[in-house]
Write a structure and sequence with these properties.
This protein is of the alpha/beta class and 335 residues long. It has a domain of 210 residues: NAD(P)-binding Rossmann-like Domain (Rossmann fold). It is built from 11 helices and 14 strands. Helix 2 links the parallel strand 2 and strand 3. The radius of gyration is 19 Å and the shape is globular.
């Protein structure tokens, strides 16, 4: 198939391009490089031995989208483009609604105009808000106590549900994933945020290589076994393989399907730090600071549905997440 990957030079998008190319698919990337690097696509081609076609631009650019769909015969779209920092979304909500919701509207319009009706959407567990019950199943209601980032994902999911009802020809997978970490086993691509990292693992790695002095652990007074937040950490390669499994599922099934992508168990921040330290044989200094706005105490997935529908489940360990992250960090920083 010929697959359009929006945000394909980003962290998750670049790993998805690797899996798609290695699966024999032709990949076209649309990216504006607001939080990504062209070098990621060069590394992707190096890993797979296949070129990646790049269209540089913004997913909200309707004229560019039309030109793209006119130029290439697209079979399906994997949509990763958008903004994702929970904290920033609290201070800049309009920026997030414009990018995430506006980008989705523009993309859907272009797909409809081109007769392309297969979409895998990058949603998030933040749509659940503060969990009423764990593990989180797909039936858990949307709650309002999430961030503007989470609200933008909620709005998009409702849009897609309405679209699937209005036009049953659509084949849509909404994938609510949890906390992606790790890197490709070659160490050639990984998470490389611009500026100060918003996520735990890249900040942890920055401290380990001496780029930053100490790690800030947001909240040590949560009602958890060690006081720190608990999350469902999933290796990025497991995550993108879940996207590929969803894509194959949509080839056989019309309509909308909503599925969690996670490991199915929680790990505290301190447990992840200790595992990382043990894996790299190095201590990482940290301070426990105030909670961060928009964060919840505990969040992990019920992954029954992904196994039943897609025949997929995560298989890589936390230790492998740490090893692959460290390999990527050392290679990218020439250590």
């Amino acid at each position: 198939m010929k697959i359009l990957v929006t945000g394909g030079a980003g962290y998750i998008g670049s790993h998805a391009c690797v899996s798609l190319s290695q699966g024999g698919h032709e990949v076209i990337v649309l990216d504006n490089f607001c939080n990504s690097y062209p070098e990621a696509l060069c590394a992707t081609s190096q890993i797979t031995g296949h070129p990646v076609v790049l269209v540089e631009g913004d997913v909200r650019d309707t004229k560019l989208l039309k030109q793209l769909f006119d130029t290439y015969t697209i079979d399906a779209v994997l949509h990763f483009a958008g903004l994702k920092a929970v904290g920033e979304s609290v201070s800049k909500p309009l920026k997030y609604f414009d990018s995430n919701v506006g980008g989705m509207i523009a993309l859907l319009g272009a797909m409809e105009g081109a007769g392309v009706h297969t979409l895998v959407f990058s949603s998030s567990a933040t749509v659940y808000g503060s969990p009423q019950k764990l593990p989180l199943t797909e039936a858990h209601p949307f709650l309002s106590d999430t961030s503007p980032y989470g609200h933008s994902k909620q709005i998009i999911e409702r849009m897609l549900a309405d679209l699937a009802v209005a036009n049953p020809i659509w084949r849509i997978a909404c994938l609510r994933y949890f906390n992606p970490v790790g890197a490709h086993e070659t160490g050639l691509i990984g998470e490389k945020p611009l500026g100060v990292p918003n996520n735990l693992m890249p900040y942890l790695a920055d401290v380990a290589i001496g780029r930053r002095k100490r790690l800030a652990v947001f909240g040590g007074d949560y009602p958890t076994h060690d006081g720190t937040g608990i999350r469902d950490y999933i290796h990025v390669m497991d995550l993108v393989e879940g996207h590929i499994a969803a894509l194959y599922y949509l080839q056989k099934q019309m309509g909308l399907v909503t599925v969690n992508l996670g490991v199915g168990r929680g790990l505290s921040v301190l447990e992840l730090i200790r595992t990382f330290e043990k894996t790299i044989n190095k201590c990482v200094p940290y301070d426990i600071v105030d909670r961060r706005v928009g964060d919840v105490a505990e969040c992990w997935a019920d992954v029954t549905k992904s196994a039943n529908l897609f025949g997929w489940k995560a298989k890589r360990s936390v230790e492998q997440m740490c090893r692959d992250t460290w390999r990527w960090v050392r290679k990218s920083n020439k250590i």
